[in-house]
Structure formats: C-alpha cells, structure tokens
Design a protein that fits this description.
The protein is an alpha/beta fold. Helices cover 35% and strands 17% of the residues. It has a single domain (20-244), classed as Rossmann fold (3-Layer(aba) Sandwich). The longest helix has 14 residues, at 23-36. Residues 1-9 have low confidence and may be disordered.
C-alpha cells in the first residue's frame, strides 16, 4: 500500500516483494502454468471446470464437486503443498502475487504430482470480490500474514473487519476460517476481529480456558522451517479457527 493511504480506503492483501525467479521455477511456469494457473477475471469462477482434471483423477462425479479451500498468501508454497497432499479430496484455490513463490509452488505441484491446487497470481481481495460468489467456499486459510510490527503500520495488516466480512459472506454455513500467526499482538487482533464478525463463531472449546480462545494446531497445518526456527527461539504460534454460522 502506498505511503499515506489509510487501510479503510482500500484493502490490500499483499505487499510486493523483490525476488529472483530460479531456472527451475521458470521451467515450472512454462510446463505447469497452463494447467494450474487460473487467470484473474471479473466473472465468477466455474469450480467444476477449473478442477476438472482433479475431479477425474479422484474418480468423482462433476455433480458432486469437492470442497474448495481458499488460501491467501502462500509464500513459497511449502505448507500449501503439504496440506493439498494430506487432503487430496479437497480442492485448493491459492492467491499469491510473489512471482518466485508462485513458481516455487508450481515446482512442488510437479514434484509431488498434486492435482488439487489452482493458483491465481493476483490480489486476493479482488479475487474475492469478483471471482467468488457468496457461500461458495468450504474453508479459508491465512497462515502467517505480514504482522507489520510497528504500531503506526498496524493499519496495513491484512486481517481487518472489512476483509473478514467479505470472507465470512463467501463461506458456506459450516465452513471455516483458519488464521495462524507467530506474533502475539497480531494474534490478539485476529481473535478480536473474528469474534466481532456476526457470521462467525469460535471453534475453540469452552472446556479449555487455558487456550484463551485460540485453537489447537489443526492436524493438516505443518510446522514449516520458519515456524520450527521460531519455536526453538521461544516464539509462540497462535491458531484461530472460526466457523460460519
């Protein structure tokens, strides 16, 4: 977001970062991009058409499509590829604007023969606004978004009420929103923002007050190298999981 532009004026789901695309990532773009990259469009996405190959690979009927999970900001795609592998029955729609990250995930897709991932290399907010109909998603993953540590930059954080309202409206009843962060002040903000969204309820068990509203780490989310390094340094990690009502 440019300097001087306040968050409420325009939600941005990313900050562009510099980075070099490797030879392997470039090859992945050429070989796998046509199949796994979806162009941004201003019309609603046709999930059946987008995941036709994955549906055939699973032997599914197009009339009973797989659940769709949106991921916002997947970095280099390590966790995304892991989750797609452990949940092959679900389809994943992944938004990321960092070109080396997109190339890295495409490379993982090829190496692991993953069929249930599609990538939109575009601002997730515009994807949500234009490509995702209301109550079309079964889940949303937002893992380790930029915490913007300085207080004067907090307004740049992704998890704010306007975005959460958009996401909640696009979740099916019973669908979930899972956020994770390793920065406690951001975890507290995420918990507060999600708690204030009337379409969402916290899945954290009331019988575990020691969790203070946070959820145990779901089985599908792996410990990344970055996270493991933080844990060894004594950093905490907070998972927040809410459900659409």
């Amino acid at each position: 977001m440019p300097e001087g532009v306040a968050y409420p004026k325009e939600i941005k789901s990313f900050v562009r970062r510099a980075g070099r695309v490797t030879t392997g990532q470039t090859k992945a773009f050429a070989d796998l991009g046509p199949q796994f990259l979806l162009p941004y469009q201003t019309d609603a996405i046709d999930f059946i058409a987008a995941y036709a190959d994955a549906t055939r690979a699973r032997g599914q009927n197009d009339l009973n499509p797989a659940q769709v999970i949106l991921e916002i900001g997947f970095g280099m795609g390590e966790a995304t590829a892991h989750i797609a592998a452990v949940m092959p029955e679900k389809n994943f729609l992944c938004c990321e604007v960092h070109e080396p990250g997109v190339g890295a995930l495409l490379k993982r897709i090829g190496e692991q023969d993953l069929r249930n991932i599609r990538i939109v290399a575009h601002d997730a907010v515009e994807v949500i606004d234009h490509m995702l109909p209301l109550q079309s998603l079964d889940g949303v993953h937002i893992f380790f978004p930029d915490p913007w540590h300085k207080k004067k930059h907090n307004k740049r954080r992704l998890i704010q009420s306007p975005l959460i309202a958009k996401l909640a409206a696009r979740l099916k009843v019973g669908g979930y929103l899972h956020c994770a962060t390793d920065w406690q002040p951001y975890a507290e903000q995420i918990l507060e923002v999600l708690s204030n969204e009337p379409l969402l309820k916290n899945t954290a068990s009331q019988s575990q007050p020691e969790l203070a509203g946070y959820a145990p780490k779901p089985h599908y989310r792996p410990l990344t190298k970055f996270e493991n390094r933080g844990i060894k340094l004594g950093h905490g990690v907070w998972d927040v999981v809410f459900e659409r009502v």
